[in-house]
Amino acid sequence: MQKIKWGIVSAGRISSKFCNDLIQLEDADVYGIAARDIKSAEEFAKKFNVKKAYEGYQAMFDDPEIDVVYIGTPHTFHYENARDAILAGKHVLCEKPLVVSPEQCESLCQLAKEKNVFLMEAMWTYFLPAIRKAKEWIQDGRLGKIQHIKIDFGYGMKYSPTSREYNADLAGGSLFDMGIYPLALTWFFLETDLENINVFNQNAPNGVDEDVIIIADCGDARATLSTSFKCNLANSAQIIGDEGYITIPHASRAVKCELYRGDDCIDQFVDERNSYGYAFEAMEVHDCLRNGETESSLVPHSVSLKLQIQMNKISSLFTR
């Protein structure tokens, strides 16, 4: 089997976690790592046995050996990095959120179509076996009619206006950084837009949102979604119907899901993987590229745009 050659954009923490899983795939060749600082790229290359280190991203984009790039830079650089890679003819897997506005999303997706290259937001949670099993239970009607969906994702962190999370110039804030998970999972499970949205937010001293609660209608169900930098949340998901409910601990990186009827667990699924779980999204990229597809059916451009529109609308309701 011919291997697919990957280039990694940024030698930061998230790129390291992704690469840790990517190197376990037999059909993946982690060919290049690019960073603004060549020393960082060289250290990353040594750690993961990457063939080539580049100083600056464009040098890697211009290398004809690279098939697809993974972008792990901060949110505000995603549009520029992905655009430059697409213009160089590279396929792209870009960390979430894909960009920071609906307009950027539309522009980037249109460019990918014009250049006939693959583009996918790295919504890795969608590909986790436990998440997909939970959706299978929902589609099989095992919960009856859905009444509530409750999802939260948040970790307490010390306020620092210069950190990536709190830096307003880097699109900081809990909604973009962590809130995208509850929003994305709500769409994945129910495939229904949020309506009648109510937002309760608290802001850091520099005005960046650091705690957000969203209550909205989602079809006939009610969604209660939370995200926070102020405290650790339960980081779980519950999908509740009139005949049963599903609970998913640590939903963003789920390894199991449980199906309840009343107080009794009547079914469960446990993923025995020995990895973070990023390999599943990489496998989807491989399948799409080998099939000549420029979008993933699980994370199509339309879903990325939908999430951008939702976050834009929610942030417009913030109290300042």
Automatic annotation (TrEMBL):
Tell me the InterPro entries matching this sequence: Gfo/Idh/MocA-like_OxRdtase_N, Gfo/Idh/MocA_domain, GFO_IDH_MocA-like_dom, NAD(P)-bd_dom_sf
- Keyword Signal annotated: yes
Boundaries of every Gfo/Idh/MocA-like oxidoreductase N-terminal domain copy: 4-121
Matching Gene3D superfamilies = Dihydrodipicolinate Reductase, domain 2, NAD(P)-binding Rossmann-like Domain
Keywords, comma-separated and alphabetical: Oxidoreductase, Signal
- Superkingdom assignment: Bacteria
Which N-terminal residues, if any, form the signal peptide? none
Is Signal one of the keywords UniProt gives this record? yes
Q: What is this protein called?
A: Dihydrodiol dehydrogenase
Source species taxonomy: Bacteria, Pseudomonadati, Pseudomonadota, Gammaproteobacteria, Alteromonadales
Family (UniProt): Belongs to the Gfo/Idh/MocA family.
What is the scientific name of the source organism? Paraglaciecola agarilytica NO2
Query: Boundaries of each GFO/IDH/MocA-like oxidoreductase domain copy?
Result: 131-246
